[in-house]
Amino acid sequence: VQLVESGGGLVRPGGSLRLSCAASGFAFSGHAMGWARRVPGKGLEWVSGIYSEGSTYYDDSVKGRFAISRDNAKNTLYLQMNSLKPSDTAVYYCARGWGPFGSRGQGTQVIVSG
Description:
Layout: E1 2-6, E2 9-11, E3 17-24, E4 33-38, E5 44-50, E6 56-58, E7 66-71, E8 76-81, E9 90-96, E10 108-112
Parallel strand pairs: 2-10
Antiparallel strand pairs: 1-3, 3-8, 4-5, 4-9, 5-6, 7-8, 9-10
């Protein structure tokens, strides 16, 4: 299993970022996938998930601002993050399965400041 995140960076409050996760080494289309984040000094938080058929979940803290999607033809998972807040600052991880404790990538840093 290999999961490679990209798209993080520094953004001002109210800005947007789009995270991508390139998956390989398993049958991507048949797995639920999601995004977790780790805020400095806190545990791993499950932010959003998407089942193989497309049903989605969002933590209340991101509902209405984030949108998860997947392209099974490209084996890629996305997270569109809008109206970003300083509290969204974290390392974001792509995760296989439902919940934050499955196989994860190395993470991509998102910093909301300015």
